[in-house]
Amino acid sequence: MTDVLDDSALDRLFRTARTYNRFSGELGDDTLRQLYELLKWGPTSANQSPARFVFVRSKEAKAKLEPALDEGNRKKTMEAPVVAIVGYDLDFHHKLPYLFPHTDAKSWFEGPQEKRRDHAFRNGTLQGAYLILAARALGLDTGPMTGFDAAKVDEAFFKGTSIRSNFLVNLGKGDPASIFERSPRLSFDEACRIE
């Protein structure tokens, strides 16, 4: 990979991409599958791939999600065509014989779930970021958020499993009138150093 993406691609993924607060449109199963088929190629440590996604689209599923949302996120989330629950599987290691077959990586993570939490959370968060970039690459707009009660989401969507919720991402066609003025970012010298 030696070619740099052109400016329009870099703008779409990063420079002009925004977090939207109102959405319209419809997202079919094919689009959601295409989204996952892109994001799954993003790297994770030892190919752990601990992220698990629930695409909340139906009225019934949204009714289960609504009580967990903070007041400031409720309306925009209920109106979004799809809400992705980005979760992480604390028992991701059971898939490692398939995902990382050239060594016994499963044994690295045996034992209590708490021992795996940092790995699952960190790599699941990476995969959630890949979801945002994949959505933008497919022409979708996103609205990621953490303003919700994770315990309520876990109870409603992951009860009896080893999966825990991390963050939510509203998906659809964003309304430009719903975005805030662009917030600043730290400069290279404020955020980085070269040694």
From TrEMBL:
Keywords: Flavoprotein, FMN, NAD, NADP, Oxidoreductase. This is Putative NADH dehydrogenase/NAD(P)H nitroreductase H0E84_01475. It comes from the Bacteria. Coiled coil: none annotated. It comes from Luteimonas salinisoli. GO terms for molecular function: oxidoreductase activity. Residues 27-157 form the Nitroreductase domain. Its EC number is 1.-.-.-. Its cofactor is FMN. Pfam families: Nitroreductase (PF00881). It is an enzyme of class 1 (oxidoreductase). CDD domains: RutE-like. Signal peptide: none annotated. Belongs to the nitroreductase family. HadB/RutE subfamily. InterPro entries: Nitroreductase, Nitroreductase-like, Nitroreductase_HadB/RutE, RutE-like.
